[in-house]
Amino acid sequence: MKIPLVDIQTQYQNLSQEINEKVLYVMKRGDFILGEEVKLFEEDFTKYCQTKYALGVSSGTDALKLSLLAGGVKEGDEVITAANTFVATVDAISQTGAKPVLIDINPDNYNLDLNQLEKAVTKKTKAIIPVHLYGQPVDMDKVKEIAQANNLLVVEDACQAHGAEYKGKRTGSLGDIAAFSFYPGKNLGAFGDGGAITTNNEEFAEKIRMLRHYGQKKKYFHEIKGFNNRLDTIQAAVLRVKLKHLDEWNKARGNWAQKYTELLKETSLITPKIESWADHVFHLYVVRSQKRDELINFLKEKEIGAGIHYPVPIHFQEAYKDLGHKKGDFPMTEKAANEIISLPMFPELTEEKINYIVKAIKEFEKANS
Ligand SMILES: *Cc1c(COP(=O)(O)O)cnc(C)c1O
Question: Do 8-103+110-243 and 246-367 show the same overall fold?
Fold first, then answer.
């Protein structure tokens, strides 16, 4: 049995008729840039995230960048985020001219260690980006308490957490602004790049609307220096069809996660902890193993896709040498990078597939004990 880490084809097969019709409709209309489907998707996504505004943009990275810029982040500022995140979070900070300031993670949930957050705040700190990594929300009450005390902007990186909830409230509605990615493998994925920004702040929404569209409100009248960072109409049409299924897909992910956790109790792997405040949407199902590399190779031989998110922490990346960090600066992040393994996770998994994967893990453990 061949099982990929992520399966995006099955989802398309199941919805192909409706998606094909919608895409053809956009092609007939020809409103490819900020067309009708973008406006409708923004309305749908606003409702979904329980926010006043949603704006379609070109990617998750651009969503983060525009959010920071709209919130006033500029050269010379500092923005705090987690050392264990996808590089795009930190790239977006760099693109504003601000300096990324990293802090270590809480090894229980792989998110920001909030006990270290306040210590990282300086006079230059302007914003904080809590990353809801793997689909589990950060403890936002704590984040907001520290942000309020220090007058900081809170930009959620919700790129892995579409539909996740914190104490019953949707991600995207928890900070000042939030960034989503619709990269094809995300819980809500387009057929190419795409992203969105959600906020309740009218001023931020207005600024982002201009920034994504050459800095103009009125055509050819450019009030601020802007970008070309719009969501394609065709992608919006695809996303509108898929959004209707997101809750059902997230529920399936949660069920598969529960199944994995139950079966993996009989192994030495450390399974994910779901925090009391969290409705976790399991973008990734991440476990820990003391023999991580050997286990991945073993699974590969069995044609089971497994990944590492992420194998090289930000402070060890060539591109971020200039932050001046060294080995040992973020011990929990470094330890996780050596032990974590992402098992196949997508809504269309089956019980048979999970049994097969767990059986392979047990086989590995037996041969390596
Ligand atoms: C995917 C992702 C991004 C970037 O999104 P793109 O659409 O690929 O630009 C940013 N942050 C996190 C945590 C992500 O997982």
Answer: no
Show the beta-strand stretches assigned E in the chain: 53-57, 78-82, 99-103, 125-128, 153-157, 165-166, 169-170, 177-181, 195-199, 216-218, 221-222, 278-279, 285-288, 340-343
Q: What is the architecture of the domain spanning 246-367?
A: Alpha-Beta Complex (3.90)
Alpha-carbon dihedral 15, 17, 19, 23, rounded to 10 degrees:
170
pLDDT > 70: percent of the chain? 100
In the chain, domain spans = 8-103+110-243, 246-367
Length of the chain: 369
Ligand 1 centroid from CA 313, angstroms: 15
Please name every residue paired with 156 in a beta bridge, in sequence order, or none if there are none. Answer: 178
Task: Report whether residue 89 contacts ligand 1, using a CB cutoff of 6 Å.
Answer: yes
pTM given for the model: 0.98
Tell me what pLDDT residue 369 has: 81
Look up residue 67 and give its two tokens: 């959010």
Cα distances from 153 to residues 32, 162, 207, 224, in angstroms, run: 33, 21, 15, 21
Task: Enter the CATH code of domain 8-103+110-243.
Answer: 3.40.640.10
* Spacing, Cα 199 to ligand 1 middle (Å): 18
